[in-house]
């Protein structure tokens, strides 16, 4: 029996909580700080990607996370003109001004790691290929440290449409 009356809500809450727990553990903070990091990085990432790539990434996110991803979305302005990692980090940091001293580099690393663990690798490759080389290189460095969470078959991996 569903705790909320609809399994779709239970699934997205469970998956979102897993993502926030992983980000929070990486940042040494609480879920509120993890949510701020996730929101800030996803917005900057979304705004840097070509529209089609941004939409395909959005389709892979848990429903609740997808909502924040599309918050204040302006498709006509994609892709943004961020040219390198330093500029990307500055943009993320600007969204973290009241996030208890959270550094953009830490937020980006934690969110990239969660995306790499939970979004299909083919989609991650497409996203990374659409980014400037310095951002792609930073994400690739994060991937080398990513250990997938234990799962049974593909049950632990979020599947689009499963929410």
Explain this structure to me?
By secondary structure, the chain is an all-alpha fold. The protein has a single domain, classed as Uncharacterized conserved protein DUF2267 (Globin-like). The chain is 63% helix and 0% strand. The chain is built from 8 helices and no strands. The chain has helices at residues 7-27, 31-48, 51-59, 63-70, 85-95, 104-118, 121-129, 133-143. The two termini are 16 Å apart.
- Sheet with most strands: none
Which structural category fits the helices and strands?
mainly alpha
CATH superfamily: Uncharacterized conserved protein DUF2267
CATH architecture: Orthogonal Bundle
| Count of discrete alpha- or pi-helical segments spanning 4 or more residues | 8
Residue runs with pLDDT of under 50 for 5 or more positions: 150-163
How many extended strands? 0
User: What's the CATH class, please?
Assistant: Mainly Alpha
Mean pLDDT: 88
- Measured between the Cα atoms of the first and last residue, the distance is 16 Å
Secondary-structure blueprint:
Layout: H1 7-27, H2 31-48, H3 51-59, H4 63-70, H5 85-95, H6 104-118, H7 121-129, H8 133-143
Helix pairs in contact: 1-2, 1-6, 2-3, 2-4, 2-5, 2-6, 3-7, 5-6, 6-8
């Amino acid at each position: 029996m569903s705790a909320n009356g609809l399994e779709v809500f239970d699934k997205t809450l469970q998956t979102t909580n897993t993502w926030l727990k992983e980000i929070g553990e990486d940042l040494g903070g609480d879920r509120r700080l993890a949510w701020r990091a996730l929101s800030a990085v996803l917005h900057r990432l979304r705004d840097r990607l070509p529209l089609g790539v941004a939409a395909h990434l959005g389709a892979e996110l848990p429903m609740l996370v997808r909502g924040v991803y599309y918050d204040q979305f302006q498709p006509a302005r994609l892709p943004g003109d961020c040219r390198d990692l330093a500029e990307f980090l500055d943009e993320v940091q600007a969204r973290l001004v009241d996030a208890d001293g959270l550094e953009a580099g830490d937020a980006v690393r934690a969110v990239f790691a969660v995306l790499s663990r939970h979004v299909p690798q083919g989609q991650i490759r497409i996203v990374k290929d659409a980014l400037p080389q310095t951002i792609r290189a930073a994400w690739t460095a994060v991937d080398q440290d990513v250990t997938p969470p234990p799962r049974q078959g593909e049950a632990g991996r979020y599947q689009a449409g499963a929410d």
